[in-house]
Design brief:
The chain has 4 helices and no strands. The protein is mainly alpha-helical.
């Protein structure tokens, strides 16, 4: 059990990773259209169920740029972006 007076180490780790990402740390990953849809579905599930330490706001900030990068690929498939938007959980 963690000490409530101490910061959650998982949240701290994710905050540090998000800080580095926002500062420009990047890598390149090759992904196809079907896998991209699977990534989007996993992200949407995570957002709907607060399945990431740090909660919805941290997850949305972390995943936002990734989802934006996939838009160009998925826009090549009629209906894909509509499907994604119809399943995206509302902001809190």
């Amino acid at each position: 059990m963690t000490d409530p007076a101490q910061p959650d180490p998982e949240v701290t780790l994710l905050q540090n990773m998000l800080r580095d990402e926002l500062a420009g740390t990047r890598t390149t990953v090759e992904i196809g259209p079907f896998s991209a849809m699977q990534v989007v579905a996993a992200i949407q599930y995570t957002l709907r169920h607060d399945a990431l330490p740090g909660g919805y706001d941290m997850a949305e900030a972390a995943f936002g740029s990734l989802l934006n990068q996939l838009d160009g690929l998925l826009a090549q498939y009629p209906g894909a972006l509509h499907m994604i938007r119809s399943q995206h959980p509302p902001a809190r």
